[in-house]
Amino acid sequence: MNDYIISALEEMEQRVRSAQPLSFSGLNPEETLLVSVDMNNGFAKQGALFSERVKALIPKTAALAAACEEHGVVLVAVSDHHNEQSIELNGGYPPHCLEGTDEPSLVSELQAFFPTVIEKNSTNAFYKMSTKELLSDYKNFIITGCCTDICIFQLACALKTYFNEQNDLRDIIVPVSLVDTYDSPQHPAQMMNTVFLCSMMDNGIRVVSDILY
Fold this sequence. Notes:
Blueprint: H1 2-17, E1 22-23, E2 32-37, H2 41-44, H3 52-55, H4 57-71, E3 74-80, H5 108-111, E4 117-120, H6 126-129, H7 132-136, E5 140-146, H8 148-165, E6 171-175, E7 179-180, H9 189-202, E8 206-208, E9 211-212
Parallel strand pairs: 1-9, 2-3, 2-5, 3-4, 5-6, 5-7, 6-8
Helix pairs in contact: 1-9, 8-9
C-alpha cells in the first residue's frame, strides 16, 4: 500500500510540474477578474495560522497585481473576518482573523492594489462573491493566495460547478506559483498542494505554472 501511495504521489507531482504558464496576451482584460484569497496579516504576517510559505507569496502577488492593474484587469481580495461566535472556530481551526485585531487586514504590500476587500466568515469565498455583477461580468477568474487545499480549492470548485450547472463555459485559473498552504507534521504542504492541484485539474479548473505578463 505504501508503495502504491508513493507511486501515485510521484505521478501527481509530475502532472503538476507539467503545467504550462499562461500569458496575459491570451486573456481579454475586460473579461478577467483577479481574486486574491486570504493574503492578510493573520495568514501572512502573524497569528495562529501564520505560515512562512504564505508570506513568500506576497511579492509574487504584488507583482501580478501591478501587472493586472496595468492591463486593466479588475482586482478583488477576499479575507477571513471572524468574531468569537464564528462557528468555523468550533472545529479544527484555532481563533484567527478576529474582528478588532489587525489579522483580517490585507498585508500592507497589497492594500494599494485591492481597493475592494470582501470579508468572509467561512473557508469558501464563493458565498460572499456570488453577486450578479461578479459572476456575470467576467469569463476568466484568476485565483491566487492561500490555502491551496482549503479556500483556493473550495472557491475554484464552487465557481466551476456553478457555471457548469448552467452550461456556461468560464475559465477558472489557478497558478501554481501563486498559491500555497501551511506546513505541519499532520499537514505536509507539498503533498497537500499536489493532491488538491490535481483534483482541481480533474474538476476542469485550468491549473497553470505561472502567469506571464
